[in-house]
Design goal:
The chain is an alpha/beta fold. Helices cover 55% and strands 11% of the residues. The chain is built from nine helices and five strands. It binds CO-5-methoxybenzimidazolylcobamide (B1M). CO-5-methoxybenzimidazolylcobamide binds next to helix 3, helix 4, helix 5, strand 3 and strand 4.
Amino acid sequence: MSALEELATLVENGKRKLVPAAAQACVDEGIDPTTILNTMIGAMDVVGDKFKRNEIFVPEMLIAAKAMKAGVEVIKPLLATAGAPQLGTVIIGTVYGDLHDIGKNLVAMMIESAGFTVVDLGVDVPVQKFLDAYEENEDVKIFAVSALLTTTMPAMEETVAALNAAPFRDKVKIMVGGAPITQEFADKIGADCFTADAASAAAAAKQLVA
Ligand code: B1M
């Protein structure tokens, strides 16, 4: 089994204690950190498919998520670039009712390494908390809103509507993303930008403030 296959298997099976060493073994073999990350994302897709087929249940999904997080910690320093310019503050969070944070954390990490200050509001974020974050932080340029469930897409719509109605609207941009989100949905709810993955989100954030 290759180092990447080994890593994928360990993430799928939620072997949190073994994942960091397996991720490090991939790094030591000279495998590109993005490839290592994409392998772990692929493993989470396998976990999601198993869940859909009722082969595993929520606790196993959670354990796999913890394993992936442990792997991300190993490659984080390799994905992030230090000393980038300061481009302003990005407020990021997962909408209320939604507890998924791995994708949002990756987006936060990539945006930070692109040169922004990131204020992460966490998961299950009430609309008002997004609004308050504008006053509570300096130089806010972008709101980045994540949702992973079809059932929380309405919460994203509500959040974006509140941001669109806010007095500071002309000073900020709104980005949205997450597995069920599409460009069409982003346009419909009045977001400025949709991206499908963390790397594109970071590139788009830079363009939005250029
Ligand atoms: Co959940 N879950 N989950 N889950 N879970 C999914 C999302 C699901 C697709 C699984 C499935 O059925 N195949 C399904 C959603 C179905 C749907 O809505 N269509 C699902 C379900 C149903 C549920 C529950 C309802 C299960 C239940 O209780 N019966 C429940 C809901 C809880 C809640 O939120 N209220 C639930 C719970 C959980 C856990 C808590 C156990 C756990 C999350 C732990 C955590 O995040 N800390 C979990 C997990 C792990 C998953 C899967 C397996 C993996 C998610 C993940 O981390 N993927 C997931 C299946 C899957 O994704 N294949 C699943 C890896 C991550 C890197 O990808 O988050 O998509 P992702 O992020 C990507 C992009 O989407 C994008 O960039 C990221 C990286 O490139 N992106 C953005 C994300 N945010 C962005 C923002 C941007 C731009 C891009 O701009 C702002």
